[in-house]
Write a structure and sequence with these properties.
six-stranded mixed sheet; 44 strands; 531 residues; single chain; Immunoglobulin-like; five-stranded antiparallel sheet
Length: 531
C-alpha cells in the first residue's frame, strides 16, 4: 500500500528563474476557527502573528446600503500563535476614534521592531455615523501585547494616535526607505460605495508618495512631513501590491505593481513603477498581465546573480491562462494564478506564470507573513543565498477573499464569496545539497529518468527504454551517503515506468542512484513526504 503526500493539497511550484531544480510548495494548516479575514494589517512579533482590521465577509456588495456594512467589520485583534492556535483580543472598549480605525479595512501598515504603524483605513465612524477614510496614524506597541490571552482587552496605553488629513488614505501601501516612511498611492473615500458613481460618496486619489519621518519616543512620537512625489499618471492607483527591491546597482527601493483604476477606463494598470529617494519612474518595456489587485506576495534577492524576484499568489486580474493561452477578461475576474516578476542583473524585468495554481479562487486581500528568523537582505526581502538546509520555511499565507466563481461582481448578494480562514506554510526546497561521498557523473547517464512526484509520496520512476531484460536497481541514500533502501526489477522490454513502495523510508531528502545492469547510471535528488 502506497503512502501519500499529505491528505490535504500540496502545490509544487518550479522556480526556473532561481535554480532549475528549486521547488516551492504550500502546506495547508488547520486553524481552530471557521472565521476568515481579508484586507487586514499584520505584524510578526516574538514568533506570533498579529492581525488587525479588515473584513469578516467577502467581496463588498454593489448596493450602497449593503456595502461595507457594520457586521463585516473585524472588531478584534487576532493572534496566530504557533502553527494553528488563533486567539482574539478585545478592542471595543477603546475610544471611538481609535476603535473605529482599528476595525477599518485596507489600512496602510508597516512594522518596525516592536511598533506597528497603521494609517488611514475605510469604515464606519461612530461619532458621525458615516463611512470615512480615517485621518490618523496609529502606532501599536507590540510589547504591550505580550502575555495577553484570548478574550483579554488590549490596554489603551499600547496605542498612540496622531491626526492629520494627509493620513486619510486607504488602499495604498506604507513602506520605509532609509529614514523616511513612504505612503504610496491610495485614495480618500468618504461615504457609501456606489458602483454607478452616485452622490453617496466622494473620492480623491492621492496621486502621490507622501513622505514623513517619525521622531521621539513612544507614546510621544512626532511626525515631520517632507516633500511628496506627485504624478497623476504613475501614482494614480490603489488596492495593489508594493514590494521592496534591491536594484541592479545595489540600492534599495520600492516597486508599485499594476493596481486600479486607469484614469480613462475602469481597468487595471499593466505597467509598474519604481520608487526611490529620487521619485517615481515607470519600468520600461515591461507589462504585468497577472495579479493586479493586492494579494499575498514575497520578495527574494539573489546576491550571487544580482537578481530580484517577487512572487504573487492569486487575487484578481484582467488576464489569466485558459488551456495554456493567456486570456483577457475585461470584467477582471478572481483568479488562482501564481506568478513571478523578476529583474535580471541588467535591470530588465520579466513576468512568468507558474505551472501550478492556488487551490481555489483565492488570494485577493490575503497576506504573506515572513517566517520568524528567515534571513533578509534588506527589510522585507528574503536573502536567497543565505537560506541554509534543503527545505526552508519562507513564511505563511493567510486569509483573503475566496470566490465561488471568477466573475461575481454584477450578481453579488454577499453569498458568492467569503473571507477565507485558509492558512498555508510556504516552503522552499533548494536544489543545492551536500551529496556526501556520492559522486554524480553526468557522463555515465545513458538515458533520461525521473522520480515523480518530487517532492512526494507513492513515487513512480519514469525512464526511457534501456534495452530488453535490463537489470534495474534504485538505491536510496541519505545525505551522508548511507544506504537506506533499495529495490530491483527486470525491464521486460515494454514498460517505461515502475511503481515503488518505499516502506523503509521516512520523510526527508534522499540521493537516489539508478543502477543499470549492475553499473551506476546517474544520481538524482528526491524529497519524500510520507503521510
Amino acid at each position: 500500500m502506497y503512502r501519500n503526500l499529505f491528505i490535504s493539497l500540496v502545490l509544487i511550484l518550479h522556480l526556473t528563474s532561481l535554480h532549475a531544480q528549486d521547488e516551492l510548495w504550500l502546506e495547508p494548516i488547520s486553524l481552530n476557527t471557521n472565521s476568515g479575514l481579508q484586507s487586514f494589517a499584520h505584524a510578526e512579533f516574538q514568533g506570533n502573528f498579529y492581525l488587525i482590521g479588515g473584513r469578516l465577509d467577502g467581496l463588498h456588495q454593489r448596493q450602497p446600503f449593503a456595502s461595507f456594512d457594520n457586521s463585516g467589520h473585524n472588531e478584534d485583534l487576532w493572534i496566530i500563535k504557533g502553527d494553528s492556535l488563533l486567539e482574539k483580543l478585545q478592542l471595543d472598549h477603546l475610544p471611538d476614534s481609535l476603535f473605529d480605525q482599528l476595525r477599518s479595512t485596507n489600512l496602510n501598515f508597516y512594522q518596525e521592531g516592536n511598533y506597528l504603524y497603521l494609517i488611514g483605513g475605510y469604515g464606519i465612524s461612530n461619532p458621525s455615523g458615516n463611512h470615512i477614510t480615517h485621518p490618523y496614524l496609529t502606532i501599536l506597541d507590540l510589547n504591550q501585547l505580550t502575555g495577553l490571552n484570548n478574550g483579554d482587552p488590549v490596554p489603551s496605553s499600547a496605542f498612540q494616535q496622531i491626526e492629520d488629513p494627509n493620513f486619510a488614505v486607504t488602499g495604498g501601501q506604507l513602506r520605509r526607505v532609509d529614514t523616511l516612511f513612504y505612503l504610496v498611492g491610495g485614495h480618500r473615500f468618504d461615504g457609501r460605495y456606489n458602483p454607478h458613481n452616485g452622490p453617496s460618496f466622494t473620492q480623491t486619489y492621492t496621486n502621490a508618495v507622501r513622505r514623513f519621518s517619525v521622531s521621539g519616543q513612544f507614546p510621544n512620537f512626532q511626525v515631520q512631513w517632507t516633500t511628496a512625489f506627485t504624478d497623476a499618471q504613475l501614482l494614480h492607483r490603489r488596492d495593489y501590491n508594493v514590494a521592496p527591491e534591491i536594484k541592479e546597482d545595489g540600492s534599495y527601493g520600492l516597486v508599485a505593481f499594476t493596481g486600479v483604476f486607469q484614469t480613462n477606463v475602469d481597468l487595471p494598470y499593466l505597467n509598474s513603477v519604481r520608487i526611490d529617494e529620487n521619485g517615481a519612474t515607470e519600468i520600461p518595456n515591461f507589462t504585468q498581465y497577472y495579479n493586479h489587485y493586492h494579494c499575498a506576495n514575497v520578495a527574494l534577492f539573489e546576491a550571487s546573480a544580482n537578481r530580484m524576484h517577487t512572487l504573487f499568489f492569486g487575487g484578481i486580474a484582467q488576464y489569466f491562462d485558459l488551456n495554456g493561452v493567456r486570456t483577457q477578461d475585461n470584467d477582471v475576474p478572481f483568479v488562482n494564478t501564481i506568478a513571478r516578476v523578476s529583474r535580471d542583473n541588467s535591470g530588465h524585468f520579466t513576468e512568468q506564470k507558474l505551472n501550478v495554481e492556488m487551490p481555489a479562487l483565492l488570494g485577493a486581500g490575503s497576506e504573506f507573513f515572513l517566517a520568524h528568523g528567515v534571513p533578509e537582505s534588506a527589510p522585507g526581502i528574503i536573502d536567497y543565498d543565505a537560506l541554509t538546509g534543503d527545505t526552508v520555511l519562507l513564511g505563511y499565507i493567510f486569509g483573503g477573499i475566496e470566490s465561488s466563481a471568477p466573475n461575481i461582481f454584477f450578481s453579488n448578494t454577499g453569498t458568492q464569496s467569503s473571507a477565507t480562514p485558509r492558512y498555508f506554510k510556504v516552503w522552499l526546497i533548494k536544489s543545492q545539497m551536500n551529496i556526501g561521498a556520492i559522486e554524480i557523473d553526468g557522463d555515465k547517464s545513458q538515458f533520461a529518468w525521473q522520480l515523480a512526484p518530487n517532492p512526494g509520496g507513492a513515487p513512480q520512476i519514469w525512464y526511457a527504454q534501456p534495452g530488453p531484460n535490463a537489470k534495474m536497481e534504485l538505491r536510496f541514500r541519505d545525505e551522508s551517503g548511507k544506504l537506506i533502501w533499495s529495490t530491483k526489477w527486470i525491464h521486460d522490454g515494454s514498460q517505461e515506468q515502475q511503481k515503488l513502495d518505499p516502506q523503509k523510508l521516512k520523510s526527508g531528502t534522499y540521493l537516489v542512484e539508478l543502477h543499470l545492469n549492475e553499473t551506476i547510471n546517474s544520481v538524482q535528488r528526491w524529497v519524500y513526504r510520507e503521510y
